[in-house]
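Consider a typical record:
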Amino acid sequence: MKARTKARGIALQVLYEYDLSGHSPLISLANRIEEDPLEEKLIEFTTKIVTNIVPMVHQLDELIAVHAPEWPMDQLAVIDRNILRIALWEFAIEQCTPVKVAINEAIELAKVYGSDATPRFVNGVLGSLANKQNEIIQKIKPDS
């Protein structure tokens, strides 16, 4: 597994735990990094993902729901929901990762952590969101 993919995987585990239990994301992250050490720059990347996504979970979910209405957020598997949040945050909010790379990375996470259907599902939803990237960016600008 590539280093940044591993970092995203750790962020996914932390977001999953936060989503299910409400545990402190930073404590969960510290525990994950203790179990599975990362280079400093990858710790920074993982921390950035977690600390930026947690406060805007509802906004990300709303964007996903609006632009992919055939997939109700409350019916999504927790792991799928968090994979979508990470990819959407990377390519539309933070704009730190090209769309194709964010989608490919999300599919890789889906293969490792999701069900057999998750990679195809994630690809479909993110494809829909990617087609609306400019609309999404415009919608979030005033809130930034």
The mean pLDDT is 93. DSSP finds eight helices and no strands in the chain. The domain at 3-143 is CATH 1.10.940.10 (N-utilizing Substance Protein B Homolog; Chain A).
